[in-house]
Amino acid sequence: MRLSLLGGGGFRVPLVYSALAEGGRSGGLIDELTLHDTDRRRLDVVASVIDQLPPGPRVRTTTDLDEALAGADFVFSAIRVGGTEGRVGDERLPLAEGLLGQETVGPGGILYGLRTVPVARAVAERVRALAPRAWVVNFTNPAGLVTEAMAEVLGDRVIGICDSPVGLVRRAAAAAGVPAGEVGYDYLGLNHLGWLRSLRWRGEELLPGLLASDEALASFEEGRLFGGELLRALGSLPNEYLHYYYFARETLEAVRTAQETRGEFLRRQQEEFFAGAAADPQRALELWQRVRREREETYLADSRAAGGGWERGASDLEGGGYEQVALSLMRALAGADPSPAPPRLILNVAGRGAIPSLPDDAVVETVCAVDTEGAHPLPVAPLGGAELGLVGQVKAAERATVAAARSGEWNAALRALVAHPLVDSAAAAGRMLRAAGWQDDSGDGS
Q1: How do residues 31-46 score in pLDDT, each as one tens digit?
Q2: What is the pTM for the complete model shown?
């Protein structure tokens, strides 16, 4: 079978290849991996890293999208429209207005979505034309929003993934002292806006005991980020990205006082890595491993700074992220999963009533059973009123973003920004749009 990885010059690609190469992980499912990117230098550097890893499926590279897609059985989409330079703008434009700028959250996420959706839809249209039976696994951020846009073309054959929920489950299980692979769980929300509401092991509900123990909460990232007082008030464990909502003031101050934004850090780091690895391909793997460790150690540094500051622990740095979620999903879709029952994964799919107040085709992040027919949301407990209100407002902003990106209309883009709960000024929203290059065609003279 053939896997095409769009964004094949991306930094995470060697992780996908390593997971495919590990014994039994892919079950020999993939014979050929095609890496596609618009940047030939990045492709060549990533190929140099892969050449120094244990052997896996054969690899080919191309800058031609149609060549990459033709005949693919699976497509992993991990594109970054505008590159890290675009991300820097998504962060700096909101900060200039006194608002949080983040890749997937708030006005930064909306700006990124407005730029990304047209390209993602164009990719989906080429998949439909050249590989209509392929399953598309979307890594591209903002993952829920982009998955919803691609689903307008591909229907249920596109599924979004994120490693934050599985990481939360893994860390919570470790803090509770039970094997992560044996727990049951209940998780519901949107991408980067969800809550773990149940953690069960051998018939016992573990979450209340975990929330009651400050010592246990202090042993893992989300417990330290949010603190026992808030977590006990919520009665759940939020996804780490909800720190931007629950501690917006503190996180904004941490971002403002930082020497550089996350995008600026990644831009500098990636420029140095790709230049160094291109100049000395024999050291590509060594350089990649060093840079990857630094990326993981500095992940969500602003939120940690806002919470008092601490270094990420070994459990927070463990693997099993995007690449393992994607491969588990791929095996199940191909009917190659050895489990007697369909595997349960937290995925971004059309909710179909998982959150009754949302349209059926609205993409949510929830627990799904996966088989050869696709990913099927499982029954979960309803959201509480506060959580439901936040989800409804953010989903309205997401759907408005998809509509605006499709139409290119100023009024639609403005509606998307002002709908988001982290945007507190319509005037600031308009200024951000103009700075991002949108033309005011509303006819009101402003």
Answers
A1: 999 999 999 999 999 9
A2: 0.94
